[in-house]
Amino acid sequence: MFQSAEIGHQLTKAAYRAAMPTLRAELLAAQVDLFEQHKTPVLVLISGQDGAGKGETINVLYEWMDARFLTTLAFSQPSDEEREHPPMWRYWRSLPPKGRVGVFAGSWYSDPIRERIEGAISIKELDARAEQINRFEEMLVDEGALVLKFWFHLTKEGQKQRLKALSADPRTAWRVTQWNWDRLKTYDQLQDAARHLLRITNTAAAPWVVVEAADDRYRCMTVGQVLLKAMQNKLAAKEIARTPMAPMVRLDLDGRNVLSVLDLTLTLDDKPYKDELAKWQGRLSELVRDARFKNRALVCAFEGADAAGKGGAIRRIAAALDARQYQVTPVAAPTDEEKAQPHLWRFWRNLPRHGHVALFDRTWYGRVLVERVEGFCTEADWLRGYSEINDFEHELIEAGVIVVKFWLQISQAEQLKRFTEREQVEFKRFKITQEDWRNREKWHDYQQAICDMVERTSTGEAPWTLVEANDKNYARVKILRTLCERLEAALQKPAGSNAPVSDKPTKAKKIKAGRSDSKK
User: Fold this and answer.
1) Secondary structure (3-state) at 170
2) Does 290 score more than 60 pLDDT?
3) Helix (H, G, I), strand (E, B), or coil: what is residue 143?
4) Does any domain span residue 246?
5) Does 519 score more than 50 pLDDT?
6) Could you tell me if 118 and 187 are in contact, meaning their C-beta atoms sit under 8 angstroms apart?
């Protein structure tokens, strides 16, 4: 990929000065149109060898463009907080919103290349990281983003001469350190790693632009022209280009599915409920204080029918935890800020640090549930949502996060009963809205979407636990028991282990009062 960037590209001073005014004016016009239309975010990745002019090019972009709509995002070694989150967390938090241009000085490519040069990862591991990056960038493009990736290339001799020139100039000498000279010794390893990674990640959604960097004027003009043409094309496009999707086809020929086979008559009497509740709350309290949990984090995802008891279950979990250790995140319709980002952005922002617990009251599954059923997104959006959600949860698990997901299921008759009670109880009236009543009319559509969700996202790493929730006592104990056993099993394995976990408690205790799991 670097052959065409080693032929001595140059641009004369006269040609540069002649082209620059028009380029600047058109870049500003495109940038303002992009901001006013609120149409798309632009991600500009500036990568390449040391001394190739990455910083100078970013400075030139600030001269040519409006700094109000331009943000530089620089990444070096991760901080302590960043190391306590999945590797992509810091990049997700820095994504520019629609209408703005974000220039990444250092990106999600930096760490894989560095680790490969240092011998910390194998070529197979590098390929796995590349595949993860491809899926991430494809998601960004499907969400409407414009992703431009530039690699500034120098020959080995060219890099050496650039470093010497920078060192000799008092205005730039500070930029060259012993570290840069040491990096020159790994030029060949960098070339091998970069050539391999660029080849695998040179996709139709986000292709690489390799720029010969020996001539400053040629490099800056090339970046400016590519950026301008890409923004103009994006502004001229009538709609987001979407990846073709196969239609959703589902057949339950015998009328049975994962929800219809649940036994919603399971109950638990008050006396044994209190005993079991205290038992599992105590066990949960012990597990989150376990020394092994200090280097892990827990994410609990709660979904369910309206009035199924998600809030009550979350409160029983929170009662077993130190208030400084957990955060409850209620999820409603996205705000304007959240709409300007990919749909998973708001969930990445609320991931817990090591030793902490995140309790999500409704989750990232809204894309394949309410957004699907209510038509808040296109069919292409929710169809690709399954794989994007699986990728998201896989990244969490690889980083040592324990992900436990609950779906609380109740019958239509029980939901009607609870809705009526909520309207009659003063302090519960806020929990029932006209939208809840309207959603009941789409019960069948939601049941279909739930079955598809479970089928496509109940993975070996993060299975769904379906909870029979007509009886609140039974549901709360099952949730606590399952959570404890999942947490205990996870703490016995190394962080990031991909060993499958069961969606059923491994050592479930039979609840003797009322009916229990043993009678299913």
Assistant:
1) coil
2) yes
3) coil
4) no
5) no
6) no
